[in-house]
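Researcher: Excuse me, tokens okay?
***
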Amino acid sequence: MKFFNIIAVLSASIASISAYETTGKETVDILVDYNIKETPEVSKNDVASWTNGEQITLQYTLNNNEETDVTVIGVTGQFLNPVTRQVVTNLTQGRIEPVAVAPGKSVRFEQSINVNLVPNNYELVPQVFIVQGDLVKLIPCRGQLASVLDKAISFFDPRLIFLEVVLLATFGGLLYLAYQVWGKSYVQGTAPVKVKKSVRSPSPVVSSSAGSSTGAGYDVNWIPEGHLKQKRTKKVA
């Protein structure tokens, strides 16, 4: 009956870790380890790489080396600053179906974590709630270093396309304004001026052959025939 009362209290308020205190032995002989389901090749000595918006799954293995039964009832954890060891954020604490573990036995269970952090380096420290006798105990796990990045935006993402259109329109408007204020007057002041040339009528060409045939500097074809006869008569007299 006491066990079910503990479960009820934990379900009502599992958010405050300080509310659960252990008495008796300072430590428990319970080993808890985990691996990351999506990247099983990442070990405790590696730095995991996570992207905001993705979900990671921790696969736990708990070994009960105590002389009495223990029951796993919940999971929690924290993201720490790996340098200062200060808590950046707490994981959403969740309850799992009670899993009883006999002495000398082990059990497996999972925890899903949604990654949504400011891009930076963190240390994930998961924690497991267990019940031993009448006490609720919190078992810390090893830390996992991780680098959190923002999700890359596709070039064809509508948000990016809208931003590009706004930037191009703004840039085009600034160029047009600059041209109207400074560029237009500058271009008009430096443009070359075209000078119109006056067209002269060609001077009449006097045939040299006509002048040379008569010995005069004019063309005899333009002189009336009667006038020529008069000149010839005068020369004979």
Residues 153-184 form one domain. Residues 81 and 147 are 11 Å apart (CA to CA). The longest helix spans residues 158-190. The beta strands are 30-36, 48-51, 55-64, 70-80, 87-90, 94-101, 106-114, 120-132, 135-140, 144-149.
